[in-house]
Design brief:
The structure is a homodimer. By secondary structure, the first copy, chain A, is of the alpha+beta class. Helices cover 34% and strands 21% of the residues of chain A.
Chain lengths: 407, 407
């Protein structure tokens, strides 16, 4: 069996860990009712479904977490063919199956629980809190027409549920990072000077296949392979005419999915001995490495996302480089870009997201590049977990150019 | 490499086939501008992206298909890191990269093309036409605030683009069906009387792994395995205490994904020789088989979805059985439930969807069950493609109980 997907039992274990958090976070955020309204989630998934529902539904389904006074209840209204699967999970107080339509049982449930607000999965800025489609929103307006003024965004709730990684989740992301580094280390032996990007990507794919793991993002650019000075990094596949060469560098951006959880690391190789690394590259590497160190030293629960980015960004500029054109870090989990708080600048593209607060248990990437004049971009990416008073790297950092000395 | 995912070159081939259709169908449906507005589609996919864009985007992206007078243009506005990947596909007239925010280039583009309407990916009833999230809809309202009255649903367009399978798509679904039947046939040799559902599902998973194909829906219920008389079918995993037994039946609902395209078939086994099959089962089988035959005889381009369902449903009732509690058929493609027109009854749960018109090139399942008193449910499912004047089964039908005579 592929190790890419999470086994059902392990998934339900994570769902139960998350269900422990839900009432606590709902109180914290002042939300008395959360409605997940979804259908055919294998075709059009809601990104939070897997962690709190633990699988897909076919027909229109309502999952309702609500405080009725002090009593906390969890209800699932699902098509009759989906009902048994929900019951067997053992996570619902009540499973209400329907045959012809979901309207009647939904109206009845909301009549009873009388919520002050109804939090829904939409957000302009945060993709993982935006699982409710617009068509389903319109459908909801027609079913709960007398309650539509109560609708609010569930984003603060979802971000906390998703961002506070459970013990099991942290183990899985760590394992994904370890496998990624295992493959990177193997590559140092397999890559030869003169290989082109396609050949190198194929070597990675072979090692992934041997370990039964899959790419953390689309395979055509996972790993992204960048050889030589002339390539802009980005979400693009290998170029067959880009070749490695003595005196040049090779960069990758690589993550695997293990039991449904992702890694995302960047490493950088130099073709030649350590003595042969030119000062221009050494300075660039030190800058990138130093910026990550500075960010890691300042990140802890309670700081804003943009303040962590700023420390790294200012350092890069102080060293005479143009600032990097992306955020310093994103969260990592079931997706390589796991949504929620970003360690990013306050640019239009990131909306209000970087204003959020770092929490214990968050897993972030720390990544940035600088551009050199003669060797192209120099870039690194590390994965960290936020601890009680700082952070911890999930696998040992890349502290210097990895050298390939076959010529 | 896993055969589950579509190779990039083949995907772009299909995208190009679909791009041939787009202006034609837009004219047919009277739509002069179609906007796909998406972000982080590996986390929160828009179901139509793969067929018309051919891959994921990270930052907010606008893909605009528009008639400017008689001139048809295709524009992609994407984050700068996504731009090279779009350019290399060779499917856009222009790729417009942005760094800090998408608003300015979007406003500029729409200022120029002056659409009469802007079709967006939302639909209350059709999941595959509902890829625009509510948060992204709100974002769009704020970016194109002066054009928000022009927004209409792109559902008629998307359903036709998705439903009219190209030559390449038909080949891939057919191959998925062939692999499914290859595994089903192998199972007839491997399944022994007395095995439980979990053991049987494991046998299927082993054969899938050997062939490097994955499940067409969630693995816990793919294949769904139903042994003996006491189980309601549905989206539920195997029950370890449900065992096969001489004189009983075994049913499965099984599909694989091959190069990104799905099969979805149901087969049924009897433990014993043909002579031993009781009349009650024979009659149930004939009814299910006959209902599928009647549906296949009446389906052709131009008929409504519900009329096809009705023929089968009426036949089942005429034979003295309770009607089946689902639609007779759904479309099949990149997803087992591929959205668009359903061959279903006019129940609340299906909305207006079954009122749509069958088109040449549509691939449908034909599936139904009847309940017997002593042997549980008897159910079959076949996959057909709609031809110019009728339909064709993609693989040979199941014409009788498959017997397992090991005792």
């Amino acid at each position: 069996m592929s190790q890419a997907k999470i086994p059902h039992d392990l998934l339900i274990k994570i769902v139960k860990e998350k269900h422990e958090l839900i009432p606590k976070i709902m109180k914290e955020k002042g939300i008395d009712c959360w409605l997940i309204f979804a259908r055919e989630t294998s075709v059009n998934p809601d990104p939070i479904m897997n962690q709190v529902i633990g699988g897909d539904v076919v027909w229109k389904s309502s999952f309702v977490f609500a405080f009725e006074g002090e009593k906390f209840t969890k209800s699932a209204i699902v098509g009759d063919f989906d009902a048994l699967a929900e019951e067997r999970k053992g996570i619902w107080d009540v499973v209400i199956p329907y045959k012809e339509g979901i309207s009647a049982p939904m109206k009845e449930l909301f009549q009873r629980i009388k919520p002050s607000k109804i939090a829904l999965n939409y957000s302009e800025d945060d993709v993982v809190s935006d699982g409710l489609s617009h068509g389903m929103f319109l459908k909801l307006i027609s079913i709960l027409s007398d309650k539509k003024d109560l609708f609010i965004s569930a984003a603060p709730l979802i971000q906390a549920i998703r961002g506070r990684k459970t013990k099991t989740e942290l183990e899985l992301v760590t394992k994904a990072c370890e496998l990624t580094e295992e493959i990177n280390h193997k590559m140092t032996k397999l890559i030869k000077t003169g290989m082109n990007e396609t050949e190198i990507q194929n070597l990675f794919h072979d090692e992934m296949d041997k370990r039964n793991v899959v790419e953390a993002w689309q395979r055509v650019s996972c790993p992204a392979i960048d050889a030589g000075p002339d390539k802009e990094y980005g979400h693009v596949g290998p170029l067959p005419n880009s070749k490695t060469k003595k005196g040049h560098i090779l960069h990758n951006d690589f993550g695997v999915k293990f039991s449904g959880y992702c890694s995302d690391l960047q490493r950088i190789w130099f073709f030649g001995s350590e003595d042969e690394i030119p000062e221009e590259l050494t300075h660039a590497f030190k800058t990138v490495h130093g910026a990550i160190t500075k960010a890691a030293e300042c990140i802890k629960p309670g700081v804003t996302g943009f303040s962590v980015d700023k420390v790294a960004r200012d350092y890069v500029k102080s060293q005479g480089y143009e600032e990097y054109a992306h955020a310093l870090g994103h969260q990592l989990g079931t997706n390589a870009h796991d949504g929620g708080l970003l360690l990013g600048p306050l640019w239009e593209r990131y909306g209000d997201i970087p204003k959020g607060i770092v929490e214990e248990g968050n897993i972030f990437t720390l990544e940035l590049y600088v551009k050199t004049k003669n060797y192209g971009m120099v870039s690194l990416e590390e994965d960290i977990v936020v601890t009680k008073d700082g952070c911890r790297f999930l696998v040992p950092r890349c502290d210097k150019f990895i050298t390939i000395e076959d010529t």
